[in-house]
Design a protein that fits this description.
By secondary structure, the chain is an alpha/beta fold. The protein is built from 11 helices and 8 strands. The strands form 2 sheets. Strands 5-4-3-6-7-8 form a 6-stranded parallel β-sheet, sandwiched between helices. It has a two-stranded parallel sheet with strand order 1-2. Helix 3 runs parallel beside helix 5 and helix 7 packs across helix 10. The longest helix is centred in the last third of the chain and has 18 residues. It starts with a helix and ends with a helix.
């Protein structure tokens, strides 16, 4: 897929992007293409709610998906023993189906090698009572899961501007994200949340624990991240920008 993306980018005259990372990639692959900036608009439900520290499940973490390796669930699991050491009631909620499930023959046939690896990590780190797969969630259910969580984590090893991070930020859920792709354009480190080196789960554990330990810090991040996300994902501004881009190209 990467090879085909490069070929496609080399053939076009215009590219719409939204981060320093995708701008850099565009220019390096096709320096003759004209780059147009336009932020993304999120799903409607996420504009209508706001996180409240008094109504969340304390010491709970939400990862929006973990079905394949680039989403970094294995890093989150490596961080969990350090978090559990400080907060024994810590719980990790993972969006999507249980990729470790092997109750039936059908489950075992469908299970991927990554699913087997995740199951192994859960056993090695004794995390059975700390990990919950939520099942597939619709828009409303996803929003509710964010609001119930104490911290949202985006542990990916590859991203541009993850919608999940934008959704968490606009709701005001305190966020910890890996430093990949365009993440630093969305979230300001130590001001709106924490950003950590993607292959350093011990730093992920440290930052999650810092938020768990301080309601004041959690509320500060919540307020600042929400302010930033409301600007980034402004529906009216983004719609008008997109129309202007198409008009200019025409």
């Amino acid at each position: 897929r990467g090879a085909l993306e490069i070929e496609a980018l080399q053939k076009v005259k215009h590219v719409i992007g939204r981060t320093t990372w995708d701008r850099a990639c565009t220019y390096q692959i096709n320096p003759d293409a004209e780059y147009h900036f336009c932020n993304e608009t999120l799903r409607d439900e996420f504009y209508n709610h706001r996180w409240d520290i008094n109504h969340c499940e304390k010491h709970s973490i939400f990862v929006s998906q973990g079905s394949y390796p680039i989403k970094g669930l294995h890093f989150m699991l490596e961080a969990m023993p350090l978090i559990v050491k400080r907060f024994p009631d810590a719980k990790l909620y993972i969006g999507g189906n249980n990729i470790t499930q092997s109750d039936t023959l059908k489950d075992r046939l469908k299970r991927t090698s990554y699913g087997k690896y995740i199951e192994e990590l859960i056993k090695i780190f004794h995390l059975n009572s700390h990990v919950v797969f939520t099942g597939v969630l619709n828009e409303k259910q996803m929003c509710e899961r964010y609001l119930q969580s104490h911290v949202f984590v985006c542990p990916s090893s590859i991203e541009n501007s993850p919608n999940s991070l934008g959704e968490a930020m606009i709701l005001g859920v305190p966020c910890v994200a890996s430093n990949v792709g365009g993440v630093t354009d969305l979230l300001r480190h130590k001001e709106e949340g924490f950003i950590y080196q993607t292959d350093a789960p011990y730093m992920l554990a440290h930052y999650v624990s810092e938020i768990f330990a301080s309601d004041e810090l959690a509320m500060q991040f919540s307020e600042k991240a929400r302010e930033h996300a409301l600007r980034t994902h402004d529906e009216k501004v983004n719609t008008q920008t997109l129309i202007s881009i198409y008009t200019k190209i025409i």
